[in-house]
Structures are given as C-alpha cells and as structure tokens.
Amino acid sequence: MGSGNIITETLLFLFQLNKRSMSSNNGKIVLGVLAGLAAGALLGILFAPDKGSETRKKIIDKGEEAGDGIKEKINDLLNDLNQKIDAAKAKAREASTEASNS
Questions:
Q1: pTM (global) more than 0.90
Q2: C-alpha triplet 90, 95, 99: angle, nearest 5°
Q3: CB 3.0 to 4.6 Å from 54: which of 15, 50, 64, 76, for a disulfide?
Q4: C-beta of residue 46 within 8 angstroms of C-beta of residue 63
Q5: First vs last Cα of the chain: how many Å apart?
Q6: How far apart are CA 24 and CA 7, in angstroms?
Q7: Over the stretch 35-91, which tens digit does the pLDDT of each residue have?
C-alpha cells in the first residue's frame, strides 16, 4: 500500500466521520488534534536530513502507524457514541413504558 493511498483513505475516513458528528465538539477537537499530530509527524520527517528513499520509507511507516492510531481512536469514539445512544434509547423506552402504564 502506497503512502498516497494511506493518506487518501485517512482523509476520506476523517471527512466521513466529521460529517457524521458535526454536532459533536469533542469529535471535532479529537479530529483536529489527530490531524495536527499527523501533519507534524509528516513535516518532521520531510525536514529530516535523510536520503530520499529513507525519507519515503519513513513517511510510509509513519503514515501506516498514524492511520492505525487514528482508526483505533475513531473506533473508540464510535463505540462510546453507540453506548450513549443505546443508553438514551433504553431510557426513552423506559419512559414510554412508564407513560403508557400511567
């Protein structure tokens, strides 16, 4: 997998996640921090005094690491969100049952 594919996949994934959670400030903050970290790592590698082939390998490796880390963080956020949604649904069902029994 080339670094261009990793970057493209990561950006598309981040865009889709951000689109889904436009109302979530925490999601936006996390995405901003992760994007900043990825950009900082990439710039740090690009300005390192290595040969081109070594730099490209480092970029690919760091891109894959960042992609894995971002996917893990996003999965954690989505799992947390799903738990909150399930809890809200359960409370709504409970309230509905109580209202219909009254």
A1: no
A2: 150
A3: 50
A4: no
A5: 61
A6: 24
A7: 787 777 777 767 767 777 887 787 788 778 877 888 888 888 888 888 888 888 888
